[in-house]
Amino acid sequence: MVDEALSAGAVARRLGVAVTTLRTWHQRYGLGPSEHIPGHHRRYTPTDLARLEIMRRLTAEGVSPAEAARWARQAPDPTPTGTVTPVRIHPSGRDGGGTIPVGRAGPAARGLARAAMRLDAAAISETIAHALATVGVVATWEGLLRPVLAGIGERHAATTGLIEVEHLVSRCVSEALAAASRAKVPTGPARILLSCADEEQHTLPLEALAAALAEAGVSYRMLGARVPVAALVEAVNRTGPAAVVLWSHTRATADPAQLSALLAAPRRPLLALAAGPGWRADTLPAGVVRPVDLAEAVSLAVAVRDSLDQSRRD
Length: 314
Ligand code: B12
Fold this sequence. Notes:
binds cobalamin; alpha/beta
């Protein structure tokens, strides 16, 4: 039993609820962890988890917590073999119906997707903050945020719905990444300039890059969304960055003339990165580099910063 028992944090992530919610359900309704090994924290067994899943589903459907807890406590042990019943989101429930597909991503991504469908901002933020603090920015982006964002996009494309989910999740992701960046403000001159292409509103990948650079101790300037090309060139000429990362998420914002203007600037950067799925490799001006993912963008930026530091020392 010990191997299957879970901590409060792990249960919260699986269910997509905040740890504080679990605590409340324990204190007020007796739905707590029943596994107790002397000298250790109490842990949740598969049966505890199954009861909490009932609690979560019923409260999400609008049943009062006291009533939901009564049902949860009365439920027979549904997992005699220790397997966990998947939570099905009620098709007409308050969570808006359906699920966000997350492919083969792990339990934390499934928990985040559930919390997103319930518009549970506290649980969304807690899940992201926990991942950032434990596995770092790149792994959080690839294993948690990217699958859920892509899943939201997929569901939206299929149904035209979920715009409220997309907006709330985007907001929570931005806040969590900004908090992670603030927690590790690098010292030294900002030699990396981050900017979205003109009219480009998809900023989250660039915000992930900013947080990853902060984590790696690399200073940067972030211009954010919808930067007109004249403003980009002005920023380059005023700050003389070693590298510029220009993000385009869709074909509509991927005008290669922006990159040509960057390369023609008097204080042309050593490295120009065309990042994001908008850019088409065969239209990029010579000398522009196209990273394949966040990890590559980070290592290119770190390499430029290091080579500049080295040449200053020589
Ligand atoms: C969140 C979101 C929004 C938010 C953005 C909030 C924000 N602050 O960023 C808002 C609501 C503003 C928004 C607006 C719009 N959106 Co939108 N949005 C999304 C969503 C769900 C996630 C975007 C994201 O962050 N993706 C990150 C990952 C998941 O993207 P990825 O493609 O896997 O990216 C990989 C590569 O780029 C690679 N990579 C290569 N180099 C690098 C470098 C770095 C540094 C990184 C990190 C990665 C990387 O790795 C990435 C993954 O890490 C996507 C769905 C999707 N699949 O992306 C739709 C999506 C991009 N949006 C879409 C659309 C249509 C729009 C709107 C036009 C809607 C409208 N009618 O207004 C507007 C566009 C406005 C504009 N001009 O920019 C479409 C685009 C279709 C297309 N291909 O043209 C998508 C695909 C949804 C869909 N399926 O319909 N959106």
